[in-house]
Amino acid sequence: MQINDNKTLPAKLPVIVEDELFLYPFMITPLFLSDEENLRALDIALADETPVLIVPAKPQNDGARDFESVYDAGVIGTIMRRVPLPDGRVKILFQGMEKGRILHVINENPLEAMVDALHVVRPSQVKTDALIVVLREKVRELAQVSHFFPPDLLKTIEESAEAVRVCDLVSSALRLKKQIAYSFFIEENLEQRLLKLIDYVIEEIEANKLQKEIKNKVHSKIDKTNKEYFLKEQLKQIQAELGADSNRDEEIEEYRKKLESKKKFMGEDAYKEIKKQIDKLSRMHPDSADANTLQSYLDWVVEVPFENLAKKKSSIAEVSKHLNADHYSLEKPKERIEEYFALRELLELRGVSEKVNNGAILCFAGPPGVGKTSLANSIAKALKRELVRIALGGLEDVNELRGHRRTYIGAMPGRIVQGLIEAKQMNPVVVLDEIDKVGRSYRGDPTAVLLEILDPEQNNKFRDYYLNFNIDLSKVIFIATANDVSQIPAPLRDRMEFIQLSSYTPQEKFEIAKKYLVPQELKKHGLKPSDVSINKEALELIISDYTRESGVRNLRRRIADILRKVAKNILTKNSEGKVTITAKNLKEFLEKKVYEIEQADKKDQIGQVNGLAWTSVGGDVLRIEAIRIQGKGVMQITGQLGDVMKESAQIAFSVVKVLIDNKKLKVPMAIVPKFEDDKRKLEASDVYRRYDLHVHVPEGATPKDGPSAGITMVTAIASILTDIKVRHDVAMTGEITLSGKVLPIGGLKEKLIAAHKAGIKTALIPRKNYERDLNDIPDEVKKDINIIAVDTIEDVLKNALVK
């Protein structure tokens, strides 16, 4: 369609709104119309064979089709072609002719308006030409730093003689924003339009130069990053072809996620060390030996539970409840434990730092099987914390506790850190089992590490060699156990507070078996109380004749032996009814007796004395024997005795000699050997000059040492040299001095319990032990044994020798 020659402006024209493009008069442009108002305006133009005005929509237009939402200027042109599309739209080919401006609105639906042409005010030709030259120069400069001007368009701009057309070509190429394009479009003063356009092109030149400079600066970095990316991708493909692990990047990312989740709970040194090792692993070849070592390290460290702390506060009521529920007797140990946690609870209630009470490290000391570890277990249950057991028996390598340096093959964290990882808590209850059996070798002294671990001033920054950063152990509750306190090195002993657990009496063992062991073992063996019962006499017989211990560990084993046979009988013999274990049929279920302590002799004998000894499994009665052999006053000592015990024998011999010389011991002269060539009168002292003595402590295969056999050896030597019998029902313990004083000893409770089991009726003990330790002795022992305090050796002999 062409504009009729007689069509003059201003004129009434239909108006079509274009949302996307800003059209210029020189353009022949395809447009797609779908809006109803636009389609009706198109129909009017085609029906009346009139031109149309195409105006751009304002940027804020939300799809409205009214004169408020469009610009008041556009392009007047004709519709060259109209093609309906299958989707309902209409495609038109529009040819722009000249710029037009809306004078006033005629119709809103469809849009029609009175339109007039925009009239250009032209400057002088000289000025126009000068401005065009400058504009073209700037356009060429902009074309060198941008992609706005294709070669064909640049050629058209250079060859065009019409200044308005040049302005329109440049404006269309610059992809201006609608508001800026509109301001250039309606500018009727050509000189002003050229000046504005030149200024805008100059701004674009500067902006593009700056962008190019920035791009050049980052280009090398981008190239390097891209190069690394492509190389990594190629490496992945190569590794995939070779069968390498394709999940390595995912694993490294998983390490990073775990590290970030723990960051706020760990120290800065720990975070830096782990992050450094993750970065190092990401740069390593996965098949290198160092990569495997480093990955093992990261597998350990990301599992350290920095973020996990048991939240339950100390409660004396809970601790007391669990201790009493799990343990019979042990009143003093339980009382001391309750005091320890009462202090912790009080400090927490009053807002005092928990570190105030960190100085006390409890150590449960006593024979095996008396409940040292189970007490720690009860404490852990009461505090709702995990229990970690670290066996120190025979530990010689210091790196077992502190960790191995990663330079060694098979390196791993120390047992302390492994315990934290196993417990998944940073404040568990850690039991240092058998701390008295820590060894020392060329690989270091573990005691030195234990000193740091148990020192509240140092353990908040405990460094594990494997981790290579500090770990805070100040919130851990450490509890040690030991059989023999004297074997613990003095500096380590100074760090701990000892709670002594003594041997159980037969009555206590009976109650423990009845209330705890039998019900627990029934449950373990799948039996019910209706299936089997062990009567009182049988249980007492098991305790007295089938076990040899201070605790109840072997007693539990004997009960288990019985219940296994019962379970077998139920399955193989289809026996019905309840099985009752009595003293009469006990031998059917247990094979042989193990007599714990030999009963006291029934008659008095010369040179045989009942001594009381402490062993790692409780007390025992040792019968020290002495004989005299005609000789020259030499004493022989046997029984695999230690140096201290040998010295006690020498002291005892000297003490007896003094007693004989001072006539405090009467020697029957009839027993003194008389030599034929000896014409002088015999004296009492000849008894120890003309006899050799042999002192023996039975069970020679068992090493024995300690000073507490002093008075026993004096009594044995005195008996054999005076030919006076020793009371069979008397036992004794005490250290002797050269002046004859009796000194205190340890392990009195265990010794008196052993005497009670052996049927001893009288026990001689040092005066200080009588005053200090008698309250610890069970009532049933004090009831059956006459306990006599002695101060001197004369007191001992007066009560031990038969008058």
From TrEMBL:
Class of enzymatic activity (EC top level): hydrolase
Gene Ontology, cellular component aspect: cytoplasm
Gene Ontology biological-process annotations: cellular response to heat; protein quality control for misfolded or incompletely synthesized proteins
A Pfam entry, by short name: Lon_C
Domain Lon N-terminal, residue spans: 13-205
Swiss-Prot/TrEMBL induction comment: By heat shock.
Keywords: ATP-binding, Cytoplasm, Hydrolase, Nucleotide-binding, Protease, Serine protease, Stress response
Active site: 708, 751
Residues annotated as signal peptide: none
Domain called Lon proteolytic: residue spans: 603-803
Catalytic activity: Hydrolysis of proteins in presence of ATP
Subcellular location: Cytoplasm
Binding site for ATP: 366-373
Gene Ontology molecular functions: ATP binding; ATP hydrolysis activity; ATP-dependent peptidase activity; sequence-specific DNA binding; serine-type endopeptidase activity
Enzyme Commission number, as recorded: 3.4.21.53
Main location: cytoplasm
Family assignment from sequence similarity: Belongs to the peptidase S16 family.
PANTHER family: LON PROTEASE, LON PROTEASE HOMOLOG, MITOCHONDRIAL
Subunit structure and binding partners: Homohexamer. Organized in a ring with a central cavity.
Function according to Swiss-Prot or TrEMBL: ATP-dependent serine protease that mediates the selective degradation of mutant and abnormal proteins as well as certain short-lived regulatory proteins. Required for cellular homeostasis and for survival from DNA damage and developmental changes induced by stress. Degrades polypeptides processively to yield small peptide fragments that are 5 to 10 amino acids long. Binds to DNA in a double-stranded, site-specific manner.
Record's protein name: Lon protease
Organism of this sequence: Campylobacter californiensis
Name of the gene this protein is made from: lon
